[in-house]
Amino acid sequence: MLTAVRGALAFLTRLPVGGGEAGWDAFRTTPAAFVVAGYVVGGLAALPLLVPVPVSTAAALYLATLYLVTGVTHVDGLADCGDAAAAHGIDDRRSALKDSRTGVGGVLVVGLGLLALAFGALGVAGAGPRVAARLVLAAEVSAKAGMATLAALGTPGHEGLGSAVVGEAEAAGLLPVVAAVVPAALLAPPGSTPALVVALAAGPAVSLLVGRWATNHLGGVTGDALGAANELARVVALHVGVVAWTLW
Question: What residue intervals traverse the membrane (predicted)?
């Protein structure tokens, strides 16, 4: 598992963890490694929310820390999927995925995604440091659980990075994923358990929807679809977590 986690961190972040070929091979067949990496990313991204600064500053620092840790690979996947969604026909959509230029569809989707994430961060930061940090952690774990779900249950698309990850693990490999997610729910401060549970459930749900879209429109789950699922799942998990915390 340790080797698989190193591979996951090398694949999902910019952290200098090494990993190499052994880590990559172990990661591809260990979906739970996605979730463990989510704890690392979420924990680092949540640190600014514990600093006694204005809510808007904490939200901005969260965004900056998040993308310093993860880089822009997954955002690029979201942009490519946005361009593909704007194209007509599976061949044009696949061409859009491979085009290094970003079109109007990609700009629109990334812009809306970052705006939604920023508003979600503002809402989370307003919940107070203890709740905010745990919601951010839950959202990241949820997003990575979504990626793991998609990798285990999805059908690989065209040959590439996605096909090297998707379908490499059996559906039974999701049992350790569920077990790895449970501690994030147990970290809930009094009164915030429903918010964390809803946030943790959002990632897999969003990722399965992205997977269905990718299968129907791209011919399978690609690396870009995995990246898009991660970005969208994080946004939705943050927002539903804040809504649940506010209402309950």
Answer: 32-51, 103-127
Dump the DSSP string for 2-60: HHHHHHHHHHH-------HHHHHHHHHT-THHHHHHHHHHHHHHHGGGGSSS-HHHHHH
The CA-based dihedral angle spanning residues 37, 35, 208, 93, taken in that order and rounded to the nearest 10 degrees = 20
Overall pTM > 0.85: yes
User: Does 240 reside within a domain?
Assistant: yes
Backbone angles phi, psi at 221, to 5 degrees: -85, 120
Contact 233, 211 (CB under 8 A): no
The amino acid occupying position 20 is G
Structural domain contains residue 210 = yes
- Provide the CA 18 distance to its chain's centre, in angstroms: 21
Residues 110-133 pLDDT 10s? 999 999 999 999 999 988 888 999
| Number of folded domains that form the chain | 1
In a domain, 7, yes or no: no
Structure-model confidence comparison of residues 169 and 67, the more confident one: 67
Residue 213 lies in a domain: yes
Domain residues for the domain of 201 are: 32-247
